[in-house]
Each structure stands twice: as structure tokens, then as C-alpha cells.
What does this fold into?
Amino acid sequence: MTILENLSGHDIWDCGEDLPNSETTYLVRSLSLSTGVRYYVNVIAYGFSGIHHTESSDGFVIDNMKPRAGVVFDGIGMNSDIYS
It folds into this structure.
């Protein structure tokens, strides 16, 4: 598993270990990421024959801003389910 700043760029973090196929989460610690930059995660799966397949996330952006107060639509009431 790797984290990169753009899909054609270099890795800024690499897991460096093989994870079992039952792993569904992975905690990354001590990684300094910049606010407002889109980062992507690549996961590479290998089969027993050595064939591999790579999947990339659609990206995530670090946001250190406090949330603004607003209205929460929780699905109760007329048409509020369209905001869920």
C-alpha cells in the first residue's frame, strides 16, 4: 500500500510490508501531509502466480479548518432524504 501526491508521481509513503488478505484497515502514523493537497492511496494485490492488480483511491484532501455551523438533514421530514 502506498500514498502518493498525484497518480503519476512518486510515493510519499510506502507500507513496506505484505498484509494478509483479511486486512481491511491500516493505520498510518507520523505522516506529514499538507492542507488542501489531494493525495491518493494505491493498493497492489498479488496472486499466488505472481500476477498483480493495482487499485487507486479517488483521493482525499486534508482539511484543517473548523466546520461551520449549519443545518443537518437527517432523513426525517419531507424531502430531507435527498440530502443523505
User: Anything to note?
Assistant: The CA atoms of residues 40 and 58 lie 7 Å apart.
